[in-house]
Amino acid sequence: MTQPGEWKTEFQKVIDHLKRELGGLRTGRASSALVEDIQVEAYGTKMGMKGVGSISVPDSKTIQIEPWDKTLLKEIEKAVAASGLGINPVVDGNLVRISLPKLTEENRKELVKLVGKKLEEAKVGVRGVREKIRESIIAEERDKKISEDERFREQDELEKTVKSFIAEIDKTGEEKEKEIMTV
């Protein structure tokens, strides 16, 4: 795990997780990411929304879910209502329609706080990966696989990598905050 290419994949996993988490946050605009991971009771088990039907966004305020099995309409409606997103689904024929209400200023500020919390969690994740890599570099030097100079060089490279990923986290957060605060 002491090769920079391997490091980047570890750090990228943290970034990808952050982007999935932020994608699920409600902004003023409809997005399939808002509902695709909601768990639906189907066939005696829990399944992700994207596993039980097609999700579409016909306009900026509406999400539609068309189940592949029409008998799941009520279960989908129930799962969306219980998701804690504060959205009310409506069964409309063979699909579930979700109209997103406008976000209030207070809701926007709460969402921005939540974004900040998610960003901090991602930064902690990056620091955890950094510590794991740093320990493996030190272990390689201790086992005489690399020299002291190589250890310092690798640790410098590691710090540069960490700084770039922290910057990417900050940039992602700024974009999401801007999206949330845009009325």
UniProtKB/TrEMBL annotation:
The keyword Cell membrane does not apply. One of its GO terms (biological process) is translational termination. Residues 18-181 form the Ribosome recycling factor domain. GO terms for cellular component: cytoplasm. It is found in: Cytoplasm. One of its GO terms (molecular function) is ribosomal large subunit binding. Keywords: Cytoplasm, Protein biosynthesis. Its main location: cytoplasm. Belongs to the RRF family. Responsible for the release of ribosomes from messenger RNA at the termination of protein biosynthesis. May increase the efficiency of translation by recycling ribosomes from one round of translation to another. This is Ribosome-recycling factor. The lineage of its organism: Bacteria, Candidatus Uhriibacteriota.
